[in-house]
Amino acid sequence: MFSFFRKKSPPPAVQPQVVESQAIAPQTAEAPATEPVSAPAAVAAPAPAANAAPAEAPATEAAEKKSWLARLKQGLSRTGSSIAGVFGYVKVDEALFEQLEDALLMADCGVTATQKILAGLRARVKSERIEDAAAVRTALAKVLADHLRALERTPQVPAAADEKPWVVMIAGVNGAGKTTSIGKITHHLSEGGHSVLLAAADTFRAAAREQLAVWGNRNQVSVVSQEGADPGAVVFDAVQSARAKGIDVVIADTAGRLPTQLHLMEELKKIARVCGKALDGAPHERWLVIDGNTGQNAVAQVKAFNEALQLTGLIVTKLDGTAKGGVLAAIASTCPVPVLFIGVGEQLQDLQPFSAEEFAGALTGA
Question: Which superkingdom heads the taxonomic lineage of this protein's source (predicted)?
Fold first, then answer.
């Protein structure tokens, strides 16, 4: 499913390490006065798994796709049930559109997106002379997919050796699922043959470093970490180490924070600047993890973090525990930062690339 990450066969596995980053004073992270010390990390991807015979691959991929769509539909069932319930109404009249408007607003699509979606649906119903409620639901799925298509984007890991490493900076509020999402993405990258190095830049919370180390061990990748160190210094060391080792990807986990905590938001900007000092153009990606349960508050988070970091993508988690899955429609209308991945569960397979068509179909039950 993460086919866009697949590039090469994984190298033989070695024992992952948690590497202690050099202790660097905060001001040094902003503009290092001395040559930074590369963390001596031995980076490894997992050993190659037993692959199915080539003739069986298409069937396996089809089964995985079907399984994912079933999980997505189940995960969005709380949102979709309220929308699908509207189409039990037999006649296609103004009452149906009024009920649908209420359902979209309750799903946290937001006023602007709801009005745009309904306007598009009315036009389609009129032009296609739809008179059946079930056909209206199919039309709604198409209109919603068109609305969400602005959020589609497929990130690509550069293949050229001189572009290594590809640096991804991850931000988000506490509890959004930031570190868990990093672990899942690392797994898929490693399975695709990419070497990965994790930077534990959440230096304020010991549990965060430990959690990232667990994911590092599970995925057979190394983690650059330093208790109490300046977050920018940890990221600087991680990028320098990755450059020296020829590692493909660096993923930096940052401390959870609310967008109203201005001093912490300034620190995020600083980490990004220090990252650029370690490698021109880094961080190449700035992703925000948002909890799908937060509804319209997620829109406010996207706006605030986008202003601070110029986000290149979103990861939306926990869509299986909410009736507010329509918030992606609100994001598309008000702050269309691409949605790269969505999560509908705790398993590795429950985080997958976002598809407007798949999401719209699951949300409407079409």
Answer: Bacteria
- 278 by Cβ neighbours in 10 Å (0-12 / 13-18 / 19+) ranks as buried
C-beta separation of 36 from 237 below 8 A? yes
Known binder of ligand: residue 260?
no
CB 305 within 8 A of CB 85: no
- Cβ neighbourhood burial of 180 (10 Å; 0-12, 13-18, 19+): middle
Three-state SS at 285: strand
Judged on CB neighbours under 10 Å (0-12, 13-18, 19+), 135 is: middle
| 178 belongs to an annotated ligand binding site | yes
* Rounded to 5°, angle at Cα 302 from 338 and 82: 80
Q: pLDDT tens-digit profile of 65-80? A: 778 788 888 878 777 6
Q: Measure Cα distances from 276 to 17, 31, 166, 200 in Å.
A: 25, 11, 12, 17
Burial of 260 (0-12, 13-18, 19+ CB in 10 A): exposed
pLDDT for 216-257, tens place per residue? 999 999 999 887 789 999 999 999 999 999 999 999 999 877
Please tell me the pTM assigned to this model.
0.83
| 34 annotated as a binding-site residue | no
308 carries a ligand binding annotation? no
Please choose, from the candidates 228, 155, 224, 217, the residue with its C-alpha nearest in 3D space to the C-alpha of residue 192.
Answer: 155
- Say if residue 255 carries a ligand binding annotation: yes
Q: Is 254 within any annotated ligand binding site? A: yes
- Is 114 annotated among the ligand-binding residues? no
173 is in an annotated binding site: yes
Determine whether the annotation assigns residue 361 to a binding site: no
90 is an annotated ligand-binding site residue = no
179 is in an annotated binding site: yes
